[in-house]
Amino acid sequence: MEDLELFLVDSLKALSFQGHCQNQDNLSRALDAGIECPDIREVVHWLAHELHILRKTDERVTNKEFNKEFSFELSLLLTELGCPYRDLVQGAIEERFKSRMSLVQLLEYLTSELMTTKMVLKAQPVGPPCKRSKMDTNVQQVVENLAKDLQLAEVPKNINTKMLFEKISPRLEQAIKQTNPQVLSEPLLKLKKPLTDAQWQVLETLHRELEAEYNLRRQMMSTRLEATVQSFQWSESMRQRSNEIMDRFNRKMRELEQFTVGGKQTDLVALLAARSDLAIIEKTSSANVRKIRLPNTKACDWSGTRSRRQGQ
């Protein structure tokens, strides 16, 4: 543990942190005091602020005061950064940073993440962005799968992606024309001619914004779900089952981790292949959703029923 604390002190000095925890003895005493210690919160707030600026994160730690808001904001930031320590991003918020070990893990992760971020930014080349998209790595596989779907002959191994796509384009256009419009609607992105390099860069920027929107909405829904589950434990009758509830919740959250990013469902190829019906959004509270259609039935002759009752 002392070696790890020494590593943390060296890391803080390398990151140019100015504070009491630059000294190993001060850091050790602060860790013993826990998250309520102002010195620990000062380090955490500084590291979180630096990461927020350099990584341009949506979440941030806004203050250094010890309260639930501090722990909540820190948890959101760690989740956005992809912190691998489950105890720091799952479970009851008030328990996440309570132990000495959790604080050591927190500082170790934040310092390592900040150092890595600075090294990556420093290593990035200065100059115009590369014209080739990093998101096109699976284009070759997509085009080959398309050729198989069109039942074309075996693809030659010495043909590049561009030539292959030009070869299958006429067959693809013919297949689209023969498809029922109700099955395959018009493309969402109508291209009258090939995109220029500048237009490709604009499209990539649009895709990154859509991907960020997806990730933000997913994180928001995940946070709302976590807050809802924790609210179930407020009642006296459910506090005894707190561990059981969180255990089941954490198992479900692990199943949802595969949807952290959209993957092939939201990559650049999926954006180009999107159809116009994808832009149609119907509110869940719209009149069409609330409308209930009943079958035509003949009205009952209640008058005859009343007359029979009166005759009895």
What does this structure look like?
The chain is an all-alpha fold and 312 residues long. The chain has 3 domains: 2-123; 135-177, no CATH class; 197-284. The chain is 61% helix and 0% strand. It is built from 15 helices and no strands. It has helices at residues 2-14, 24-33, 38-55, 68-81, 86-89, 93-96, 100-123, 139-149, 161-177, 197-231, 236-239, 242-256, 268-273, 287-290, 302-311. Helix 3 (38-55) packs parallel to helix 7 (100-123). The chain is elongated, with a radius of gyration of 29 Å. 12% of the residues are buried. Belongs to the FAM98 family. This is GD21242.
Structural descriptors:
mainly alpha, elongated, 15 helices, 3 domains, 312 residues, 61% helix
Tell me the count of domains: 3
Structural class from helices and strands?
mainly alpha
Low-confidence stretches: 127-137, 291-312
Secondary structure tally: strands: 0
Please indicate the percent range of residues in DSSP E strands (runs of 2 or more).
Answer: under 5%
Distance between the termini: 95 Å
- Overall pLDDT score: 75
* Structural Rg: 29 Å
Shape: elongated
What is the tally of helical segments? 15
Main beta sheet: strand number and arrangement?
none
Report the order of strands and helices: HHHHHHHHHHHHHHH
Pfam families: DUF2465
Family: Belongs to the FAM98 family.
Protein name: GD21242
GO cellular component, one term: tRNA-splicing ligase complex
